[in-house]
Amino acid sequence: MAAALVRPRNNRMIAGVCAGLARRFGTTPGTMRVIFLLSCLLPGPQFLLYLGLWLFIPTEGKTHSTAW
Per residue in 12-63, pLDDT tens? Predict the structure, then answer.
């Protein structure tokens, strides 16, 4: 079973999105970063997708309280 999709507190470069995706899909963070950089050469909303993932993927170890 694959790991949960979270942004790790260590091994980050900017926000930990690539490190979290690498952990989830079983590859190295360096490989995921190269894939992301190469995808930026193609037309599309890659940068916006990165920003969205930064906002919506929770940080490792951070708990969200549902109580008001």
Answer: 888 999 999 999 999 999 999 999 999 999 999 999 999 999 999 999 887 5
Per this entry, what is the length of the chain? Answer: 68
**What is each CA distance from 13 to 18, 30, 58, in whole angstroms?**
9, 10, 16
pLDDT digits (tens, 9 = 90+) for 25-39: 999 999 999 999 999
Give backbone dihedrals phi and psi of 56, rounded to 5 degrees, phi first: -100, -20
* Among 28, 29, 27, residue whose Cα is nearest residue 17: 29
In this prediction the pTM is 0.79
User: Would you give the end-to-end CA distance of the chain in angstroms?
Assistant: 34
